[in-house]
Write a structure and sequence with these properties.
24% of the residues lie in helices and 37% in strands. The protein is an alpha+beta fold. The protein has 2 domains: 41 residues; 244 residues, Lipoprotein localisation LolA/LolB/LppX (outer membrane lipoprotein receptor (LolB), chain A), CATH 2.50.20.10. The protein has a 15-stranded mixed β-sheet that branches. The N and C termini lie far apart (132 Å). The relative contact order is 0.15.
Length: 316
């Protein structure tokens, strides 16, 4: 009995159909398996995803009274006794600096930063219970290394010209963190609501050197300081600070800004800019040798300027 011959075209068709089905099944199972793996990996990585930052609580649901606002600011300040952090410092006309900042309220501060984190190639800004200092350890903006300093009590009695002769007053850094303190003799006006929806508080302080004016802009809902402007007795702008990127620390029930931008105006009308940035703070856990941390350095062969001698007359 003659065998039945399948036409060659039919064999080719069957072979082609086999490979189409095989490839379809392989691709299908492959995609299905890839999808399962992707889903599993997504779920696995989801478990390691950085948790969302805690939300900053609402402080005011409406327009606060002056007493409510001052109590809110005082509570924020009283919560924080100490602060330390790694920071980057940007000074206009100079390379970016990296370093550390330590603060112990009300007057103690130390900011040391340098190029690539090397202190010897940057600045040392500090304050203790008696005096404050600004040491530019490397030439910045074309100026030779200089150590400027002044005793707090003498500086309080200095004129506006003396205050404008220095590029930075360390207490401004503490205030820029939102940690402000008002004196009992201060006069306040406000809060007033600005066109941008922020609270505006005007403060007049009477010092031996004359009146000083401070305008504070505050987030109307969260009660956080966003900007502070300081004027002398002639209402000349001395400096202003912007505080942004607030982060909430629930264990301390306090919020601190991750970026502080400072604009400083000298007596000759020049503006200097300084920005301090961090990713977060350690609060109330400062450690180290207080004698070294809060003592003004005594560098050799460095120009020193006693700010109390500016104008030719020592302050008494």
């Amino acid at each position: 009995m003659p065998s039945i011959q399948t036409p060659p075209i039919k064999i080719a068709y069957l072979v082609l159909r086999f490979w189409v089905v095989f490839v379809a099944l392989w691709v299908g199972f492959g995609l299905f398996g890839f999808d399962l793996c992707s889903s599993a990996n997504a779920q696995w990585f989801k478990g390691f995803r950085r948790p969302a930052a805690p939300q900053i609580p609402i402080a005011f649901n409406g327009m606060p009274t002056q007493q409510q606002l001052l109590q809110r600011l005082a509570a924020q300040t009283a919560t924080v006794k100490q602060v330390d952090a790694s920071v980057s410092v940007a000074i206009k006309g100079a390379p970016k600096l990296k370093g550390t900042i330590q603060i112990e309220r009300p007057l103690r501060l130390r900011l040391k930063a340098g190029v690539l984190g090397v202190d010897q190639m940057g600045v040392d800004v500090g304050s203790n219970d008696d005096l404050f200092w600004i040491w530019t350890r490397a030439a910045i903006g074309g100026q030779a290394p200089t150590l400027m300093y002044a005793f707090h009590e003498q500086f309080k009695r200095s004129s506006g010209a003396v205050r404008q002769a220095i590029p930075l007053e360390p207490s401004w850094l503490i205030n820029a963190l939102g940690l402000v303190e008002f004196s009992k003799g201060d006069f306040h006006q406000g809060p007033l609501l600005t066109a941008q929806g922020r609270l505006k508080l005007i403060t007049v302080s009477n010092a031996q050197s004359g009146r000083q004016y401070r305008i504070t802009l505050i987030d109307a809902a969260r009660g956080l300081i966003e900007q502070q402007s300081i004027y002398d007795e002639n209402r000349n702008l001395i400096a202003y600070t912007n505080s942004t990127g607030y982060k909430y620390y629930p264990e301390h029930n306090v919020s601190l800004p991750n970026q502080i931008e400072m604009h400083l105006f000298t007596s000759d009308g020049q503006e200097q800019e300084l920005t301090v940035t961090t990713s977060g703070y350690n609060i109330n856990s400062l450690f180290g040798d207080p004698q070294r941390m809060w003592t003004m350095p005594q560098p050799a062969n460095v120009q020193r300027i006693d700010l109390s001698q500016i104008g030719g007359q020592p302050l008494r």
